[in-house]
């Protein structure tokens, strides 16, 4: 596997890169849209997707593109969280990822799109969900969107899922990679507070941000895929594994 990118997802994929020759994993590009990302950043990702798709077509390779299964895409009130949903993204980031998916699908190469929920693990960027919650807890004040829920997935489970899908030879499909368990952010903050030994004040923001992600398509791909069934308190396992490492990363940055 050729991995394009040097970030969190790219680093995680290196553990299985030797298992999937002929695959180009596009683990680079914009991970959120905010003031720090200018229009040319979005255009640069579009150019990258177009260029890699052309190369894959000429070399007979599979282009693996990572999109989002977050509320940015699946946050509409009537969205089921299935892959057929997400045609009306709620945010600029969701619209951007949807546009990149369309570029991939319209190309001449073989392709596979994996929509990722909130991955959690060491080495994440500070703005991502759990590192941001840990930093806020340590600062004594956490911003919480009231009635929001999020689907957390340990990065090691993400790698195993990706390995399973690629090993099954799936092509020209869009597949969610998630736990299928949507947990209230308030509950996530409760456990972060326990693990960080803090008692942060919560600042509530009134927004509509509930969503769920279906993994039924993932589980139907092969007998091996059916193992992806997670308990209701899976989020605790994810946080127990990741928060100590995030705390160490935070200490180093300080």
Give a quick rundown of the structure:
By secondary structure, the protein is of the alpha/beta class. It has helices spanning 8-13, 39-59, 71-74, 92-106, 129-139, 155-167, 185-196, 216-219, 234-253; strands at 2-4, 23-26, 62-68, 110-116, 118-120, 141-145, 149-154, 174-177, 182-184, 201-205. α2 (39-59) runs parallel beside α4 (92-106), α5 crosses α7 (185-196) and α7 (185-196) packs across α9 (234-253).
Strand content: 15-25%
Q: Residue ranges: pLDDT <50 for 5 or more in a row?
A: none
In helices, the fraction of residues equals 40-55%
Estimated radius of gyration:
18 Å
What fold name stands as the CATH topology?
A: Rossmann fold
* Oligomeric assembly: single chain
Task: Find the structural class using helix and strand composition.
Answer: alpha/beta
Order of helices and strands: EHEHEHHEEHEEHEEHEHH
Major beta sheet summary? 5 strands, parallel
Separation, N- and C-terminal Cα atoms: 35 Å
Shape call? globular
Determine the number of helices (DSSP H or I, runs of at least 4 residues). 9
Mean pLDDT: 89
With strands numbered from the N-terminus, the spatial order across the biggest sheet is: 1-2-3-4-8
CATH architecture descriptor name: 3-Layer(aba) Sandwich
Q: What would CATH call the class? A: Alpha Beta
- List the domain count as a whole number: 1
The CATH homologous superfamily: NAD(P)-binding Rossmann-like Domain
Number of strands: 10
